[in-house]
Every structure is written in structure tokens, then in C-alpha cells.
Design a protein that fits this description.
Elements: E1 4-7, E2 10-13, H1 17-28, E3 33-36, H2 41-46, E4 52-54, H3 55-63, H4 68-73, E5 75-77, E6 80-84, E7 87-91, H5 93-96, E8 102-104, H6 107-120, E9 125-126, E10 130-135, E11 143-148, E12 151-156, E13 159-162, H7 170-173, E14 179-195, E15 204-206, E16 213-217, E17 223-230, H8 240-251, E18 262-277, E19 280-281, E20 284-286, E21 292-293, H9 301-320, H10 326-329, H11 331-353, H12 360-375, H13 377-388
Parallel strand pairs: 1-12, 2-3, 2-13, 3-9, 6-15, 13-20
Antiparallel strand pairs: 4-8, 5-8, 6-7, 10-11, 11-12, 14-17, 14-18, 15-16, 16-17, 18-21, 19-20
The chain binds adenosine-5-diphosphoribose and P-hydroxybenzoic acid (PHB).
């Protein structure tokens, strides 16, 4: 069967936050793109992911014209809590970080808003595609082959963006040109979405001898809670009662109770740090999880994906509108400084808050660090500044990283 040839300016593989936001930014600037997603729309819209937007991320989404529901339903937070040794301490993020705040709004909701905007505008977004492969990326005329609804297609374009997550096909296609940095952690997160009002207005990150726990939320009726578990943990070993008992134990505080509710969803999130350098080769550009992964403790994954595509959109627009091509050549360098900052912050939060093993030396160091953060404004500010996110302008401003 011969393939049908299609043509666009930018072929985007993956309809996660990175790919969808990029397509939206490009469209707003008059650049055409096609988004190819191998899962169904329903699957993508129901996948539960993280829920903390840095202020800069919320601003990008709003400026792109997809912030209406986020403004209505998102919850602005000005602080988080750290809990350890039976005490809970508030970190006043906004006081410490120039008034900046975070917005609690699920990644799932961000994705729904972006899909709706694209579908309403009648723009090309194809779900359930199969056999995606990238070709001729070292030429001026790269191509993406895929099949959709039992037909084969060849999509000619000027640039391909691999926004296809950690398990996608784009990064492996250029792996021989990349240097990979990675770290595995010997634990994971067991996360639940519960039909329970949040017991704490703001997020609580709890360090406990039995392991880390996190109280988060999605709305006034929905709590999102996480427990550190073993990397190879099986979900069937965690009936709901065991999850609640463990949460109750790890976040217990005198005079405060954790409200329980029906468990609507549960899943295990692996923990990994991963960076590829550079984030591009020829006419293929990687963005979001396809280029880097952070453990979720710093809530940085989604935010990094959005900052990548903000940089990439600018560079692509400039190259298409007769501006400079250097933006594209510099894309990776522009992103990696911010990526590594988020990598360090996520690693630091992770290793400070989780049970690392049986060595009491580790736990004494962790407690010392936690006590320092809650007693020194300078230390708390370091956490706050990173948590709310460095301004989007925090890129590699001058040559060299
Ligand atoms: N062809 C087409 N689409 C693909 C392929 C493929 N071969 N492989 C993967 N995909 C799709 C996935 O189904 C997914 O919808 O690419 C999309 C990648 O989206 P995400 O994994 O959400 O990655 P990204 O957009 O970079 O967003 C990063 O997502 O995983 C979280 O914590 C992470 O918050 C971060 C954010
Ligand atoms: C979430 O609400 O899903 C969440 C919040 C904070 C994190 C990670 C996940 O650090």
C-alpha cells in the first residue's frame, strides 16, 4: 500500500502537555503543525498526573489563550508545609520568592483544555496513530511516517518535535548522538485520588521513619495523596485500608486529623532522574519527558515541559518568519541550564524527604537539613525560589552553560 503524503511546517509527536502546548503556541504565531498521538483521546484525558503549576507555567498557558478554566478552577497557593519529627512547619513561598505563587490544577485538566482548544479550532490532532517513525532528520526535509485508521501516511515537514515522553520513539532515533545522564532511586510513589476534602489547605511534604508521604489536592472535594513504597511494589498488596493506615501513621499530628474517603484511582509512579544532552539533532528537537525526567518530589516535570516548548516555539517562529536560525541551533543550550536546576532541586527534595535505607547517618543528615530550612530564612528561600520556579527568562543568557 502506498503512503499518502501530507505536508506541514512542524510535525509534533506526542499529545502530552509539551506537544499540545507547543502546537498551541505555534498556531497563535501563524505556524502550522500536526500533532500525532498513539493513545486514544480518552486515555490521554483520563491519565492522572501531577498538579502543581509554577506561576510562570500558568502565565504561559493563560497568554496562549487556554487559561480560562484554570483561572476559574485552579487554586492559588502561597505556601507549603514540611513535616518531620512530629512537627509541621509552613514555608511561606510567596513571602520568600518575590510574591510568586503556585496554582493547583491537574495536568489532566491542562491537557483537556489544550485538546479542546485545538479540536475547536479544527486543527490537525490525530489520536490512535500507530507505527510512528522519523526519517531524514539530517536533511532540510525531514519526514514522519505513521499509520492512522488503517492507512499509511508520510508527513513532510521542516522540523520534527519529539514530545513523546520517556518511552517514545524520537529520542531512541538519535540516541547515538546523545549523552545520557541518569539516576535510579530504590523507591517509588503509590498515589491515590480520594473522594475526600483536603485535610490540609496547603500541600504537606512529610518525612517519616516509615517513609515519605505527601498530601496534595485537586479541588475542595478531591484529595491527592502519595506514599513512598518499594520500587518493585505491587498494587494488589495495597488494599485501600492499608494505604489509609500508612498515610495516617506518616502524617499524624497532634490536634489534626486526616479525612479519609473512597479511593477513586490508584497507581505507582517510578522515580528517576534523567537528562539527555543535547536535546536536538539535525531537524529533530526533543521537549519535555522525552528529553528529561525528574522525580516528582519537586513538582517540576510538567513545568519543565512547558518551559522547553516556550523556548522552542520562539525559536521555530523566528526561523519560519525570516528571523534568525540561531534560536533553533541554540534551543538545547537555552533549555539545559533550567533543566539541570530542576534536576538538582528534584534530587535534593527527594533525597531530603524519603527514607533512603537503614543507615541512621542518612536520616540524621536529612533531619539536620530539614531543621535548617525551617529555621533559616536563607535556606527556606532557596527552597521557595526553586519550588515556585525560576522566571522563564532563566535560560542560558550568555554563551557557555
Ligand atoms: N507516537 C505518538 N505518541 C506517542 C508515542 C509514539 N510512539 N510514544 C508516546 N507517545 C505519547 C504518549 O502517549 C503521551 O501522550 O506522547 C505523549 C507524551 O506525553 P507526556 O508523557 O505527558 O510527556 P510531556 O508532554 O513531555 O509532559 C511531561 O508529563 O509525565 C508527565 O511528569 C511528567 O509532568 C510531566 C509531563
Ligand atoms: C500532585 O498534586 O499530584 C503533586 C503535588 C506535588 C508534588 C507532586 C505531585 O511534588
Amino acid at each position: 500500500m502506498t503512503a499518502t503524503t501530507l505536508r506541514t511546517q512542524v510535525a509534533i509527536v506526542g499529545a502530552g502537555p509539551a506537544g499540545l502546548t507547543l502546537s498551541c503556541l505555534l498556531h497563535n504565531a501563524g505556524i502550522e503543525s500536526v500533532v500525532l498521538e498513539n493513545r486514544s483521546r480518552r486515555y490521554v484525558e483520563e491519565r492522572i498526573r501531577a498538579g502543581v503549576l509554577e506561576q510562570g507555567t500558568a502565565e504561559v498557558l493563560a497568554a496562549a489563550g487556554v487559561g480560562e478554566r484554570m483561572h476559574r478552577e485552579g487554586i492559588v497557593h502561597h505556601g507549603i508545609h514540611l513535616q518531620f519529627a512530629g512537627e509541621r512547619h509552613r514555608i511561606p513561598l510567596s513571602d520568600l520568592a518575590d510574591g510568586r505563587a503556585i496554582v493547583i490544577y491537574g495536568q489532566t485538566e491542562v491537557v483537556k483544555d489544550l485538546i479542546e482548544a485545538r479540536v475547536d479550532a479544527g486543527l490537525d490532532l490525530r489520536f490512535d496513530v500507530a507505527d510512528v517513525s522519523v526519517h531524514d532528520i539530517e536533511t532540510e526535509r525531514p519526514r514522519v511516517r505513521f499509520s492512522h485508521e488503517h492507512r499509511d501516511f508520510e508527513l513532510e515537514c521542516d522540523a520534527i518535535v519529539g514530545a513523546d515522553g520517556f518511552h517514545g520513539v524520537c529520542r531512541p532515533a538519535i540516541e547515538q548522538h546523545l549523552r545520557i545522564f541518569s539516576r535510579e532511586y530504590p523507591f517509588a510513589w503509590l498515589g491515590i485520588l480520594a473522594a475526600a476534602p483536603p485535610s490540609s489547605e496547603e500541600l504537606v511534604y512529610a518525612h517519616h521513619e516509615r517513609g515519605f508521604a505527601l498530601l496534595s489536592l485537586r479541588s475542595a472535594e478531591r484529595s491527592r495523596l502519595y506514599l513512598q513504597c518499594a520500587a518493585d511494589e505491587r498494587l494488589d498488596e495495597w488494599p485501600d485500608t492499608r494505604i489509609w493506615d500508612e498515610l495516617q501513621c506518616r502524617v499524624a499530628l497532634d490536634g489534626w486529623t486526616l479525612v479519609e474517603g473512597a479511593v477513586l484511582e490508584k497507581g505507582i509512579t517510578p522515580m528517576r532522574s534523567f537528562v539527555t544532552e543535547p536535546m536536538q539533532h539535525g531537524r529533530l528537537f526533543l521537549a519535555g519527558d522525552s528529553a528529561h525526567i525528574v522525580p516528582p518530589t519537586g513538582a517540576k516535570g510538567l513545568n519543565l515541559a512547558i518551559s522547553d516548548v516556550t523556548v522552542l516555539a520562539e525559536a521555530l517562529v523566528s526561523s519560519f518568519t525570516g528571523g534568525s536560525r540561531t534560536g533553533l541551533a541554540e534551543y538545547s543550550r537555552m533549555c539545559l541550564r533550567r533543566v539541570w536546576r530542576a534536576e538538582h532541586f528534584s534530587y535534593w527534595m527527594t533525597t531530603m524527604l524519603h527514607r533512603l535505607g537503614d543507615d541512621p547517618f542518612d536520616s540524621q543528615l536529612q533531619l539536620s537539613q530539614l531543621r535548617y530550612i525551617v529555621s533559616s530564612e536563607a535556606a527556606a528561600r532557596t527552597l521557595a525560589e526553586n519550588y515556585v520556579g525560576l522566571p522563564l527568562g532563566h535560560r542560558a543568557a550568555t554563551p557557555g552553560r
